[in-house]
Design goal:
single chain
Length: about 110
């Protein structure tokens, strides 16, 4: 495991998430699930009228996107799109890249 994978694992532990996974901690599916978790926690904090906690989870999303997903997903998505045999995977790759890039842009504009 490289430095990036170790950093991702550390972030999961900080959120008290179970690390009993078969994939590498920086696998795209695991990282996207972590983003879901952070978004969910921000939403819960907002609904619980806890603005400081909500802001903290928003900062964690920005940091995670900037440090991890947005660094490698665009290149990954382009490779998947160029090599996918079906339209489904080409579109999924494009959608994943669009989510990561636009989410970071949206969060940093807020």
């Amino acid at each position: 495991m490289g430095e990036s994978a170790m950093d991702v694992r550390r972030r999961y532990r900080e959120e008290c998430l179970d690390l009993n996974i078969k994939e590498a901690p920086d696998h795209i599916a695991i990282e996207l699930e972590f983003m879901y978790f952070l978004i969910h926690k921000e939403t819960e904090a907002t609904l619980d009228n806890a603005p400081a906690a909500a802001a903290g989870y928003m900062r964690k999303q920005i940091d995670f996107l900037g440090t991890h997903l947005c660094r490698w997903v665009p290149g990954f998505s382009q490779k998947v799109g160029a090599n996918a045999r079906t339209q489904f995977y080409r579109k999924l790759a494009n959608l994943t890249e669009t989510f990561a890039v636009n989410d970071l842009r949206s969060l940093t504009a807020a």
